[in-house]
Amino acid sequence: MARMHALIGKWDMKPCSRGLSVMSYDTESGAMDAISTFFEEVIVGNQLVYPEKNIVYICDEREDRDGWVGGGGYVLAIRIDPDTGDAAIVSRKESLAVGPSYLVMDKTRRYLLVTHHGKRGHATKIVKRPDGSFGCEVVFDDAALVLFRVDENGSLRDACDVYITPGEGASGRHVISHQHSITAAPTGELFFVCDKGTDKIYTFRVNSEAGKLVFLKEFSVMEGSAPRYSVVHPTLPVVFQNNENKAEVNTWSYDGESGSLALICTAQLFSPEELAGLEAVGFEPNGSCMFGPSDIVISPDGKRLYCGVRKANRIVSLDVDDKGCISARQVVDCGGVNPRGLSFSPDGRFLFSANVESGNIARFVVNPDGDLFYDGNAAGRINIPANIAFMSR
């Protein structure tokens, strides 16, 4: 039977369950069998596979540099042995900011772009003014998009450019930028950054000759909604974006040249009756991350969108029409508790849900019409599974 490796990233801000679990993946049955867990000190926030080099890039989503209080996280290039599944670090670079959260490559495969979430805290510093008097200032973590060069062998060089997205407002009511994710258009030339803190989406390019980030545009989402993840349609100039604090998905059309966005529709992930029922018992499905969406993925043919909803323990699938407009089609139980990461199998036959609180990988068969059918667990218990990637053997 054909086999691959499934890479399970374990994400836990407390040092009790971290690392990268390498699994043997059976492409026929969708079953995963454990090989080993590596790098158990690493908080695997996100993964990106570079298949031609047998390398996976990982965000180590930590706040504290080795031996420091503060100092930020790391980005790792890890080579997976195609025969044994053993994992070895090729390069490890300081990410320069707190909480590296997501990463993508540009079309040339010469650059890696990494977002940073930052913390919600602040520090008060005493300053001496030009007139000799003393005062204080409040400072916050930088939320930075950092650009790394990639060598021919897939290893990482030092950062070559940084773009810091600023917060807003006076220090007493400061809005802190929290870059949560970055995704690329199919051409690999346009990038979308979701910022939970400022409720904005930013668009960027990379000047590959100069090794520089090029900021294009920024767009505001509803205040307090906290844009979390986005996914780009495979053929239409459309990007879908969910919100951590609002149970809905927005559809934006984009201009590939200018980076401009235009909102074309919004779909709710709860029916009006469900919303009323939740609010009646004291929950806040909108305005609280308890019932906010987690991950979002799109089918390879672009006809169906899937969105996990955390404390509701559901996956909502949405039809996508020929203009990119979406409408809810099916709701299924996620097969566990708190679906943080969704991932298609490489052939699109299965959808997997990494359920962090129940510690299981639920497997769903994707029917020809796009509906999901729960097919049991893909593997035995895994503590805090958060994201899944696949690599050929």
Task: From the structure above, extract its key features.
393 residues, mainly beta, four-stranded antiparallel sheet, 1 helix, 2% helix, 53% strand, globular
Span of the ends, CA to CA: 12 Å
Sheet with the most strands: spatial strand order: 3-2-1-30
Principal-axes geometry comes out as globular
Structural class: mainly beta
Q: Name the helicity range.
A: under 10%
Please summarize the sheet with the most strands. Answer: 4 strands, antiparallel
Descriptive overview:
- The protein has one helix and 30 strands.
- With 393 residues, it is mostly beta strands.
- The strands form eight sheets. A four-stranded antiparallel beta sheet has the order 3-2-1-30, with no helix packed on it.
In short:
By secondary structure, this protein is mainly β. Helix content is 2%, strand content 53%.
